[in-house]
Amino acid sequence: MSDMHNAPPTGILEVTDLCKTYRDGEVLAEVLKGISFSVAPGEFVAIQGSSGAGKSTLLNLLGALDKPDSGRIVVDGLELTADIKNERVERFRRDKVGFIFQNHYLMQEFTVLENVMLPLRVQGYNTTDAKQKAARVLERIGLGHRLQHFPSQISGGESQRVAVARAVVKNPPLILADEPTGNLDSENRERFIGVLNALQAEDKLTVIVVTHEAELAMAASRRLLMKDGKIVLPAAEAHAGPN
Ligand SMILES: Nc1ncnc2c1ncn2[C@@H]1O[C@H](COP(=O)(O)OP(=O)(O)OP(=O)(O)O)[C@@H](O)[C@H]1O
Ligand SMILES: [Mg+2]
Q1: Residue nearest to atom 16 of ligand 1 (CA)
Q2: pLDDT above 90: residue 156
């Protein structure tokens, strides 16, 4: 039987009974205590939960930046093994997942265009093709006039959109975003949500976003709430459907 979250059989992401405990000397922090859910291709899922609930921990596991103690993660047919240095898992990170962090980590010594070209260069694109593809994505999100600027010469909202461009430029099947609007004002937050929504609708991107912010969560097609190391459905959603 499928569980209460009604897992679609063709999930791009299948998470089963994920557990993670941090060990700090003698002190154990049991952060994830059996997380299970699945995400269908093209879904935009928001993960909510209070500070310390384990949202970033979960996102890091989904992107194979860290490994669980137990449980199973399958992304786009690939099972992420516990060995995150595994060659297949490294290829997964390179080709299958785009990250957007709250602190966008743009490379300061590279231009906006070069920052967005980077993931393509890592994938083996030549400079000309990478430049073309990166410029196209930047134009699409309204940054065509900022290609040759350096990160220090653009605003926080613009930087965050560059981070989106960098995450989506290689057309990964899965986009993971951790508090992506945390340091934006309301105008830039709306703009960011608009960009993400448009890309998601047009490119059928699957987006998982961790957020405290109601506005961003409400833009998602589904919301999952983390509490006490588990996923619980927000009470309000038990009656009112998404969309
Ligand atoms: N590397 C680590 N070593 C030890 N404990 C950690 C580590 N990373 C996170 N934790 C602990 O795990 C818990 C969950 O942290 P996590 O960063 O996943 O929370 P979060 O839900 O993302 O919170 P926030 O909303 O504040 O970003 C916290 O209590 C944190 O202190
Ligand atoms: Mg966090």
Answers
A1: 54
A2: no
